[in-house]
Design a protein that fits this description.
Helices cover 14% and strands 13% of the residues. It has a three-stranded antiparallel sheet with strand order 2-1-3, with no helix packed on it. It is globular, with a radius of gyration of 15 Å.
Length: 95
Amino acid sequence: MLCFTRQDPWVLPEPRDLNPLPLTTPYPPPGRERLRHLVIGSPDGVRSTIHTLHVLNYADQMTWSQLIAIPESGILITPEQGEAFSYLIRHRQVS
């Protein structure tokens, strides 16, 4: 899967005008399924969620990428053929 940043939010540019950012290695090791998690929110919310998943022994904090700022124009995510997408919206209390 690639994540593309767009220059203009109102016009879908030609593929040559997109700036791809690879989100993962292309193929999982044999016998493994690749699942990709996207946590999108405020920097504090993303860090808090990553920490919670670490405490639950789901994913070590060190396995996540550094935070990537989303430009004002947004992002375009392109899955690979045959992949599905689901998302969950949860709310957390901000202190």
